[in-house]
Amino acid sequence: MKLRIALCGALLLPLAAFAAEETLFGMRADVPLAETSKAPGLKKVLKETDRKALNYVNQPPLVPHKVQGYQITQKTNRCLQCHDVDNYLTTGAPRISPTHFTDRDGIVLPHVAPRRYLCLQCHVTQADAKPPVDNSFQGLGQFAKDKE
Which family does this protein fall into (predicted)? Predict the structure, then answer.
């Protein structure tokens, strides 16, 4: 039995060398993952426009305005100054989703749940930027239609 294991290991060892030579690029396309790359510059944010159509169910809506310089800390959240339930009617901004008030245990809170407080983790600005790698994703049903 030990001889079989040793033989299998000896036969598989050269295959591992071939696998180790493969270079992975990930989302950076032209720079291997093992190397350090220069961060891309900020893309041009589109001027304030109508909200874009969603591509899939539960997709976080895109932000149709600049957010550079918005402060989101433990004590303040610039996004909530316009989108909170107390403010959206006077600002004309879309109201924050009711799902943002539910904590991880399903309890509805009187304020934005901590797991939803950092808006820019999910919501990104509409920018005039090409995808870093090819993407063949296609939405299904009504989400595949462009409603712009």
Answer: Belongs to the NapB family.
Instruction: Tell me the whole-structure pTM to 2 decimals.
Output: 0.64
Residues flagged as binding site: 65, 79, 82-83, 100, 119, 122-123
Q: Tokens for 26? A: 């990930």
Q: Are the CB atoms for 81 and 87 separated by under 8 Å?
A: yes
| Non-local CB neighbours of 129 within 8 Å, separated by 6+ positions | 43, 44
- Of 89, 108, 88, give the one whose Cα is nearest residue 98: 108
Amino acid at 75: K
Closest CA to 119 of 146, 89, 93, 92: 93
Q: CATH fold of 43-148, please?
A: Flavocytochrome C3; Chain A, domain 2 (1.10.1130)
Which amino acids are annotated as binding site for heme c, given as ranges?
65, 79, 82-83, 100, 119, 122-123
What is the gyration radius of the CA atoms in the chain, in angstroms?
A: 23
